[in-house]
Amino acid sequence: DAKTTQPPSMDCAEGRAANLPCNHSTISGNEYVYWYRQIHSQGPQYIIHGLKNNETNEMASLIITEDRKSSTLILPHATLRDTAVYYCIVRVTSGTYKYIFGTGTRLKVLA
Amino acid sequence: GAVVSQHPSWVICKSGTSVKIECRSLDFQATTMFWYRQFPKQSLMLMATSNEGSKATYEQGVEKDKFLINHASLTLSTLTVTSAHPEDSSFYICSAPRGFEQYFGPGTRLTVT
After folding, report:
1. Could you identify which of A61, A78, A94, B19 might form a hypothetical disulfide with A74, taking C-beta atoms 3.0 to 4.6 angstroms apart as the criterion?
2. Cα–Cα distance between A76 and A74 in angstroms, integer?
3. With left for phi above 0 and alpha for psi between -120 and 50, is residue A70 left, alpha or beta?
């Protein structure tokens, strides 16, 4: 079973920040939090990942709570092309790279 | 960046026939690849882990005799859907890990008539 829960859908106005929450209350100390997104009928695309510190790259920021039981993906200036399903996944830091996908959040960016 | 390709991108076959889907890592070697299935408006479901030089590891509930996986080289894994039925119609996606990322293929849409 997936170890994450996410809201099924969210809307965001174009140009505004999109904040996508994820709950991973059973996360272990050796598990990373990964975020991917899937645009319709394509393979998932990597966005960002983190262990316990907040992370930022050219696509997004990842905020992980101090107890690591939840995280938020932030798209700072959402565009129409960011409309996709966003998946939050936890993965152990070594050994298998197996991903178990949860239901994800369907983000719709509105013009 | 690393690229994973799949072939074919879509296929239509008749019920009872077998279909082979290829997954290739184009610029890196992958001793492990993963196969997923995705039904419309649903999440990706992991089917199996493909291991180069050894047997695949199947997730619970996935029939290994129906979904044959072969990892013949460090850049190629194949999934064969045997005796396909309409309920096997789905979007099949493969992935390969490299570094800290998983690289996903573009998917193969299978329609069984």
Report:
1. A61
2. 6
3. beta
Q: Which residues of B52-87 are buried (b: 16+ CB within 10 A; e: fewer)?
A: beeebbbeeebeeeebbbebeeebbbbbebeebeee
Q: Which residue in A32, A49, A101 is closest to B43 by CB distance?
A: A101
Q: Contact A64/A90 with Cβ under 8 angstroms?
A: no
Residue A3 CB neighbours (<10 A): 17
SS3 state at A9: strand
**Contact (Cβ atoms closer than 8 angstroms) between residue A73 and residue A20:** yes
Q: What amino acid is encoded at A37 in this protein?
A: R
Q: Is pLDDT of A19 > 90?
A: yes
**Which residues of chain A neighbour B45 with C-beta distances below 8 Å?**
101
In contact, B81 and B94? CB cutoff 8 Å: no
Measure in Å the smallest separation between the Cα of A41 and chain B Cα atoms: 8
CA geometry: angle A86, A100, A57, nearest 5 deg:
40
Per-residue model confidence as pLDDT tens digits over B20-60: 999 999 999 999 999 999 999 999 999 999 999 899 999 99
